[in-house]
Amino acid sequence: MIRVLLADDQSLVRAGFRALLDAQPDIEVTGEAPDGEEALRKVRELRPDIVLMDIRMPLLDGLAATRRITEDAALKDVKVVMLTTFELDEYVFEAIRSGASGFLVKDTEPEELLRAVRAVVDGDALLSPGVTRRLIAEFAARSKEPEAEGALTGLTEREREVMALVGIGLSNEEIARRLVVSPLTAKTHVSRTMVKLGARDRAQLVVLAYESGLVRPGWLG
Asked: pTM score, two decimals?
């Protein structure tokens, strides 16, 4: 059973998400929070598998709450997906750099929300369809200057190649087709790369691909 915590200052949004999620046989909403402070308290108390976190909330915003969750070693298994009203929210890239596993726009289709919850719990990053490459490239361009690629010296050539493909938004299946390997092999390469770099999840791997200079903003493969 996938345990979800809803953090949003709009009760109607929480009610809608709860109704959809609780109707699934493999998902349950274990708690709700109307602000970031309450979200943190509930995360520490309930230890959900995933938090659907609004970016803009009172007392403590979603970005700050996400940083506190992802920096707490005791909460390392808790995944965070940011919720935003607009696809090009100025805080989206910063949210991913803060440790969020991805983001969703609030008016996303119900099926996509359910897919997102399941995908993130399985270890995949989640970005709303159609905006992944464009958005990451745009916000990566505004981030700090790329560091020397020395941070990637522990990777094999194939792992660097796979990391670059993750960085431009390809799924494991797409990577497998590009490299002419099986999806399982592609997933294994991605997992090993994450372990070597200490990446929390696939979303962090994307950020590292840009910050190391392995992928440059605007390169879409």
From this structure: 0.70
